[in-house]
Amino acid sequence: MSEDSEKDEALMQELRTFFAQVDPVPEQVNEFGKAALGWRHLDADLAELLSDSALEERSFDLARGTGSGPRSLTFTATELTIDVEIHEDDGHRTLLGQVSPPPAAATIEVERVDDDLLSADTDQLGRFRVSFPAGGQIRLRVVDRDRGSRVAVVTSWVAV
Questions:
Q1: CA 104 to chain centre
Q2: Is the Cβ–Cβ distance between 44 and 77 less than 8 Å?
């Protein structure tokens, strides 16, 4: 290494340290970056978020005087639809969902930004249930066990 490149590297390290202290990267930006780089199944069909009850107005709930119930998400892909209810209880999350039309043999994987992976097999009606300890960014993957455990559908990332 030449003397000039060593000086440049020392200057770059000083700048990294300075900016890490003065203007650190927000944690959410790091999470989204990891999520973007985590796209490993390019041949999988991407399921679009069709509806999210968290984005809809709660005027009906307010008018009836009810509290906020479970959050409902619907994802749609070329060949199937994934409906999910997210129930919160003391910091834990439970996903109750259904894949339509029901696949013959599928596993639903819940991938978290922290690389934690949870899974559940669907029943004959395409229903599944997954619980995990806290919120964060997640996405769902439908793994088709009849086709050699190929990831058939991947949803976009959502905050739960």
A1: 24
A2: no
